[in-house]
């Protein structure tokens, strides 16, 4: 997910996407502890996407 895509989302979509990604991250981490993922860098990518969403949400709060 690119930052440009994140900036185009509305507030409701940002919150929903963040929640979905957090659930996905938790599931991936659980699966990775049981059986190693084929590509563990996926966890890093999801964490970065969540960080991008958090950053955009915070910027919007500060601009209000």
TrEMBL record:
GO terms for molecular function: structural constituent of ribosome. HAMAP family: Ribosomal_uL29. SUPFAM superfamilies: Ribosomal protein L29 (L29p) (SSF46561). GO terms for cellular component: ribonucleoprotein complex; ribosome. Belongs to the universal ribosomal protein uL29 family. This is Large ribosomal subunit protein uL29. The keyword Ribonucleoprotein applies. It comes from the Bacteria.
């Amino acid at each position: 997910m690119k930052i440009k895509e994140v900036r185009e989302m509305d507030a409701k979509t940002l919150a929903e996407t963040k929640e979905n990604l957090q659930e996905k991250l938790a599931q991936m981490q659980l699966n990775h502890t049981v059986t190693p993922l084929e590509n563990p860098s996926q966890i890093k990518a999801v964490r970065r996407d969540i960080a991008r969403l958090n950053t955009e949400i915070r910027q919007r709060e500060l601009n209000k």
